[in-house]
Amino acid sequence: MSAKMAAAGLSRDPMGLPYxxxxxxxxxxxxxxxxxxxxxxxxxxxxxxxxxxxxVAFGKYIxxxxxxxxxxIVRNTSLSDYEAIWxxxxxxxTDWGAVGRRLAEGCGPAGVLAAAARAAGGIRIxxxxxxxxxxxxxxxxxxxxxxxxxxVEALSGRLGAPILCPDGVTRHAFxxxxxxxxxxxxxxxxxxxxxxxxxxxxxxxxxxxxQLDFRAIxxxxxxxxxxxxxxxxxxxxxxxxxxxxxxxxxxxxxxPVDVWVRRALSRYFPAGLDLSRLSPYAGVAQQYLFYYIRxxxxxx
DNA sequence: AAACAGGCCTAAA
DNA sequence: TTTAGGCCTGTT
Length: 300
Hints:
Distance between the termini: 29 Å
Structural class: alpha+beta
Shape: globular
Number of helices: 14
Strand content: 5-15%
């Protein structure tokens, strides 16, 4: 994976934004940001690029653009921020070819998983901020993606640190645990979280009290233990815990089972699916399946 | 207008 | 250990 700034003196694109071009393989920016793993990115349209998404992560505003599957353009970033943040966030430090080969050998050339991999193989699992991921997927429960996005934006806009962006718009970071704690559960309810307000508040409380050790989770290889740690937060069950491990910690073997995946499993694998065949990348297969059945059902 | 949305909690078998 | 209701809120 190579990243380079444009040559010296050309470090800004025609719109005046500093950018980095990354060579890669079979990367779909659209699938990656539309597959439901993150809630703060949206399509930029019109755009001089074939596809372009914009959003906030790790307290910074970026745009991610693409003209073909072999190249990703990260806009509004310095090279050092790319190396320190975006390379990892965008999954550009992972050998996805190896992931694909392992999944292919686990599920064979025919069958639904192979079809799903063909349809959704451009997806990259993002490595999002664990705290933001935890809150976002608590909010996601019994909820739909447009409203999840709306709530996360409301939370950020009200409680997150402002970010002045090059287009003159002020955007906002995702709020810290302290900010949520200070706001109180009532304020969260007023922002539209509904009964999830108490859950997010509880997450903030545990974090602020040091009862939730993200570093320990990040360093552990014991998925069950990691999930158990996350489930100490009220409102975090098996599905949300798995999502946080997959999308917030890059634990690619975590396998969230939601209504869609449950549907896919019962429809396509009535006899059951042996997840160990997909290990240690079962979560990637999960995301392919999720994307696949939703596209079959016309939801994407 | 009843049901549903990338679940989870509590109570009860 | 598994199962039944209830839950904020917006949309269809």
